[in-house]
């Protein structure tokens, strides 16, 4: 009976101890993990962030957004290939003209039209990947609703400009196909395929701005991304107490548990 009474009082003092420290017998089960080891304990600030819908990982906006971003990435590979062809043509033209007297035929027209492919098939991927330069010094000091309104207004302007340019480009594309317009120079290649790339690029860039509006609204409602408020540090209950007081409380709890175990 005395032994059982001592064990029960030891556990009662352990759970009643304000410092949460344990005796030597409980170190195997209740010892705190060392630095560098994983633990499943969630801090109050992290738990509050999870409840508010905040996340530091990659943001997801649904299947349609994911598919369009993947499509834009594939189109950027085509733009990169066009840039490689431009580099090769310029290199061969310079070397051939300077050393052998053999310039590339229609080099200027070919490079000028390939620039349409290199630029307009990569522009909407940059918008989807948030790689464009953004100046947000003023936005960071605005309230969340005003910040959302400013961003939506800017995206709507981008949508209007891109769709209007795509429409006018379509008019030129139809004219180029009907008149069979070709490049001037030695090699008279057709121009309409490059004009079609320009129309596609402007149209896809307008869709990218439309996806940006959806992302901003989604982030605003979920309080994440650019609309994520600054995390508030949650102080612990014993943060302000001096270190000596911590040592006194822990030492007193251990001595009391040892004393009661010895009496039993």
Key features of this structure:
264 residues, mainly alpha
Helix and strand sequence: HHHHHHHHH
Give the number of helices. 9
Largest sheet: none
Give the strand content.
Answer: under 5%
The quaternary organization reads as single chain
Alpha-beta classification = mainly alpha
Query: What general outline do the C-alpha atoms trace?
Result: elongated
Distance between the termini: 9 Å
Level of helix content?
55-70%
Average pLDDT? 74
Uncertain segments of ≥5 residues (pLDDT<50)? 1-57, 232-254
Number of strands: 0
Gyration radius over CA: 34 Å
Summarize the structure.
The chain is built from 9 helices and no strands. With 264 residues, it is mostly helical. It has a domain at 63-227.
Q: Could you describe the 3D structure shown?
A:
The protein has 9 helices and no strands. It is mainly alpha-helical and 264 residues long.
């Amino acid at each position: 009976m005395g032994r059982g009474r001592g064990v029960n009082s030891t556990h009662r003092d352990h759970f009643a101890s304000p410092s949460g420290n344990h005796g030597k017998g409980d170190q195997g089960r209740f010892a705190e993990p060392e630095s560098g080891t994983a633990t499943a304990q969630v801090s109050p600030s992290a738990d509050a962030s999870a409840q508010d819908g905040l996340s530091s990982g990659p943001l997801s906006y649904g299947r349609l957004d994911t598919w369009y971003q993947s499509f834009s990435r594939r189109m950027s590979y085509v733009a990169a290939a066009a840039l490689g062809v431009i580099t090769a043509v310029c290199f061969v033209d310079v070397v051939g003209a300077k050393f052998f007297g053999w310039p590339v035929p229609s080099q200027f027209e070919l490079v000028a039209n390939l620039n349409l492919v290199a630029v307009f098939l990569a522009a909407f991927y940059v918008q989807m990947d948030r790689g464009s330069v953004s100046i947000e010094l003023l936005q960071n000091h605005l309230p969340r609703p005003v910040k959302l309104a400013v961003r939506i207004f800017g995206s709507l302007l981008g949508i209007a400009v891109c769709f209007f340019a795509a429409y006018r480009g379509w008019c030129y594309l139809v004219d180029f196909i009907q008149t069979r317009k070709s490049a001037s120079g030695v090699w008279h290649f057709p121009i309409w395929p490059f004009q079609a790339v320009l129309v596609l690029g402007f149209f896809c860039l307008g869709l990218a701005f439309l996806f940006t509006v959806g992302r901003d609204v989604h982030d605003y409602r979920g309080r994440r991304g650019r609309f994520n408020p600054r995390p508030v540090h949650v102080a612990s209950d014993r943060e302000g107490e001096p270190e000596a007081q911590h040592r006194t409380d822990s030492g007193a709890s251990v001595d009391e548990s040892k004393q009661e175990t010895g009496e039993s």
